[in-house]
Structures are given as structure tokens and as C-alpha cells.
């Protein structure tokens, strides 16, 4: 259904509608084009002829073709989810490998679906095996493999890495729930504002991943504050659906502004502390070099 655009500069904008936040442009600069595109979407359409032509040739042929159709659709869904999980893995400095290798399962199911489809008219084990191998290999070449190892920062033990990975994964779930709730309002400006806050929050995530020692000092931001922001977004979406008001929208936008300032401030403080730690280490190293009789090079 078509949606009319509205905003601060629209002819029918409310008098108290604030202009778009200046910082939102940074959020769009962070956005990378997703690899979930035409190739993965075509996987959902390719098996349709099997479903269309499954009827009319007897119960055995129908069952065979519908089974192949189901396997290929499941393979397409696993592939798309695997690509999404791989993108999230690549975006983080510290991340755990996906618990389920979705793309690899998708490759096997694609080969299996093609093998079963090839036996619909006549059972030929050799042809089925060829289709299975070809489908599995071609799918793997087209979409690659899932990450098989955990990513960790250099010099950081596994325990610290797991703590950060778990905290960031939970925080990402809160951001995803916020984006989903904002989309329910069909308010483009509000959706963009939530996306802007998510970008600022992810700056904090990346900073903690660079130095897992900071996790303790920002645990409330990744847990309590994001949980509260998620709940507030869901409640606003529910209110917007029942009885939207300009006052509620203004209050929610103000809340997002305050949260974004706090998250940005915390990120900047962590970066400043890292710079101070580096200056201290450089000073200690210069003193040691001086004691060893090595001339300091500016």
C-alpha cells in the first residue's frame, strides 16, 4: 500500500515537528550494501515450476516433486539467513561463529532437492548423484561457506572474547527489535531516527570490541539502557497504532536524542582513555630507552 511522505519540511507538517537531526547522515554513511540480493532471492523462485507441475501425473510424482520443492525452498531460506549471519560476523571485530552453518546446509539441501527432482519421472541413481554433487558444488561456489572460527582481538584471552561477543549479540537483538517496532509505525522519519541511534550504539560496540577491558564500564549501556530503549520503542509503536499523538512522538524523539548523546559521549570517553593509556605506554617506553642509552627519536 502506498505511503504518503511526511516530515518537517512537508506542506502539512505539524508546527512542532523538528527538522531531521544533523547527525543522521552519519548513520547512512555507515550502512553497507547487503549481499542479500538478486541471486539469493532467485532461489525462492527457481523451484516454483516443480510445485506447478506436481499435479496430474499420479501420487508418486506429486509427492516427489513437492518434496523437492520443499527442500529447495528450505535451502533458499537457509542461504539467505546464512548470508545475513555472515554479514553480521564480518561487521564485528569480535564475534562467535554461527552456531548453525546455514549456507553449507543450504548447499547440501539444494543438491538433495535437485537429486530428488531428477527422480520424479524415472529413478536413476547415477543421474541423482550427479545432480546432488553439481547442485551442492555450484551453490557453494556461488554463496561461499559459513565462518567456521571465532574472531577475537589480538592479545585477548578467550574468556574476554566470549564475554564481549555475548554482550554484543544481545545488544544487537535489542537494536533489531527497535528497528522492527519502528517499522510498524510507518513513520519514515522515526525509522531513520532509530537507525541513527543504532549506528551510534554500534560505534560503542566496535570500541568495546577493540578493547574488551572496557566491557565492564559499558555493560549498562549494552544491557539495561538498550533494553529500556527497546521497550520504549515497542510501547510507542503500540500507542501509535492505537491513538497516535504529536506529544508522544515528540517525547520519544527526545528520548532517542538523549540516548544517542549519552552513547556518543561514552564512546568518546573510551577513546580518550585509550589515547591516555597509549601516551602513558609511550612515556614508559621512552624512559626505558633513555636508561638504556638509546636516543629518543622525535
From TrEMBL:
Residues that span the membrane, as ranges: 36-56, 62-83, 104-123, 129-145
Signal peptide: none
Membrane among keywords: yes
One protein family per Pfam: Halogen_Hydrol
Region of interest: Disordered: 1-26
Record keyword Kinase present: no
UniProt keyword list: Membrane, Transmembrane, Transmembrane helix
InterPro entries: ChloroindolylP_hydrolase
Protein name: 5-bromo-4-chloroindolyl phosphate hydrolysis protein
Organism field: Donghicola tyrosinivorans
Amino acid at each position: 500500500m502506498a505511503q504518503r511522505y511526511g516530515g518537517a519540511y512537508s506542506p502539512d507538517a505539524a508546527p512542532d515537528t523538528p527538522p531531521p537531526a544533523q547527525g543522521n547522515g552519519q548513520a547512512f554513511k555507515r550502512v553497507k550494501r547487503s549481499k542479500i540480493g538478486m541471486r539469493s532471492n532467485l532461489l525462492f523462485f527457481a523451484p516454483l515450476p516443480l510445485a506447478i507441475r506436481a499435479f496430474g501425473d499420479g501420487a508418486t510424482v506429486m509427492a516427489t516433486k513437492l518434496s523437492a520443492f520443499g527442500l529447495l525452498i528450505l535451502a533458499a531460506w537457509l542461504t539467505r539467513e546464512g548470508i545475513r549471519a555472515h554479514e553480521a560476523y564480518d561487521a564485528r571485530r569480535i564475534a562467535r561463529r554461527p552456531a548453525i552453518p546455514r549456507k553449507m546446509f543450504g548447499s547440501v539441501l539444494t543438491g538433495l532437492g535437485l537429486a530428488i527432482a531428477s527422480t520424479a519421472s524415472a529413478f536413476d541413481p547415477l543421474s541423482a548423484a550427479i545432480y546432488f554433487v553439481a547442485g551442492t558444488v555450484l551453490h557453494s561456489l556461488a554463496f561461499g561457506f559459513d565462518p567456521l572460527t571465532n574472531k577475537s582481538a589480538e592479545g585477548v584471552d578467550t574468556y574476554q572474547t566470549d564475554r564481549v561477543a555475548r554482550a554484543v549479540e544481545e545488544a544487537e537483538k535489542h537494536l533489531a527489535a527497535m528497528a522492527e517496532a519502528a517499522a510498524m509505525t510507518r513513520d519514515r522519519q522515526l525509522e531513520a531516527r532509530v537507525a541513527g541511534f543504532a549506528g551510534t550504539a554500534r560505534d560503542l560496540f566496535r570500541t568495546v570490541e577493540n578493547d574488551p577491558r572496557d566491557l565492564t564500564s559499558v555493560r549498562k549501556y549494552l544491557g539495561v539502557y538498550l533494553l529500556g530503549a527497546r521497550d520504549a520503542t515497542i510501547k510507542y509503536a503500540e500507542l501509535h497504532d492505537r491513538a497516535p499523538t504529536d506529544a508522544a512522538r515528540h517525547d520519544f524523539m527526545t528520548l532517542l536524542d538523549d540516548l544517542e548523546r549519552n552513547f556518543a559521549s561514552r564512546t568518546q570517553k573510551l577513546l580518550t582513555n585509550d589515547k591516555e593509556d597509549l601516551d602513558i605506554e609511550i612515556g614508559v617506553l621512552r624512559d626505558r630507552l633513555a636508561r638504556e642509552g638509546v636516543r629518543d627519536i622525535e
